[in-house]
Amino acid sequence: MANIQIDDILAGTPAVQCKTKIVCTLGPKSAELSVMEDLLQAGMSVARFNFSHGTHEYHQGTLDTLRQAMANTRLMCGVLLDTKGPEIRTGMLKGGKPVLMEAGREVTVHTDYTLHGDEFNIAMSYKKLPEDVKPGAESKPRQHC
């Protein structure tokens, strides 16, 4: 006869600890309620919101839909907000051709992003540059890798 105790039977099975997560990035193709319900039922454990694209209002709507999908399916998942810092970009160059930046050459940086730059003038997307950098300040540019 097996050594089985009634308390062991009534205690039930211990909760399974999953060490692997399924992360799904939500976007326009997965924004519908039925798609989110399908993702939850397929095992989505984390919903990722990519703030590189879309507005805060768009992501709020997607989160509201996800909450409804979780309520409908009674399946929960985590939410990951993938935020990115601001990017500062240089503008277009005249003729779309690369420019050779020589050491020691003075270059003027403009916040008028419509300006097409050359080896002496470059447009930059950072509108607050004049507030944060004093005229005549020196900078050593680095190439984005």
Automatic annotation (TrEMBL):
Pyruvate kinase barrel domain sequence ranges? 19-137
Q: Which InterPro entries match?
A: Pyr_Knase, Pyrv/PenolPyrv_kinase-like_dom, Pyrv_kinase-like_dom_sf, Pyrv_Knase-like_insert_dom_sf, Pyrv_Knase_brl, Pyrv_Knase_insert_dom_sf
| Keywords of the record | ATP-binding, Glycolysis, Kinase, Magnesium, Metal-binding, Nucleotide-binding, Pyruvate, Transferase
A Gene Ontology molecular function term of the record: pyruvate kinase activity
What cofactor does this protein call for?
A: K(+)
Gene3D superfamilies in the record: Phosphoenolpyruvate-binding domains, PK beta-barrel domain-like
**Broad EC category:** transferase
Q: What is its EC number?
A: 2.7.1.40
What pathway, per the record?
Answer: Carbohydrate degradation; glycolysis; pyruvate from D-glyceraldehyde 3-phosphate: step 5/5
* Similarity section: Belongs to the pyruvate kinase family.
Q: What is this protein called?
A: pyruvate kinase
- This chain's source organism reads Mantoniella antarctica
